[in-house]
Design brief:
The protein is an alpha+beta fold. The chain contains 5 helices and 8 strands.
Length: 193
Amino acid sequence: MATIRPMRPNDLLLISSTNLDHLTETYNISFYMEYLTKWPELCQVIEGPDGNIEGYILGKLESSPYAPPLAPYDPATTGVAYPHYLPWHGHITALTVAPSARRLGHATALSSALERSSDAASAWFVDLFVRASNDIAKELYRKMGYSVYRRVVDYYNDGEDAFDMRKPLSRDKDKGTIREDGEEVRVTAEDVW
């Protein structure tokens, strides 16, 4: 049986098989180490019964680098008047499962762990970016309760758009941090932050 555990620095030498998918974004070691040192509770691996790493998630807690224009933040007021402001939230930077371990519930288990940690930290929602062409990932996230908040034009280095997908957490009782028509809302990468 596979188990989720905190990611350790030496795991970075063992995750290459999880990054074999052409849709998986990969990073250099210093990027992973920054996450491990700043947000260790949001960096998890799923280890198979044979000890091999079958998947991992990197996440962080963040908000816009400036105070909310209308404080305290409320999606019904600040969120409407300042739609590009990002309140305190969890972010999935990377979630990947080795091709040989897919369809076993690993992505859902890893995401749920990050969502619980974000909820415990009083985040409003968890968000992530996914390639507009990655239909399999978009459907997976929809099944996990995520919805498209906006389309970020030319987000990836190759010019492909991204969908900013969000899942509200318990702090967002009125679901004010999500919207119905997110695929129609287009923003630039500069608007995201």
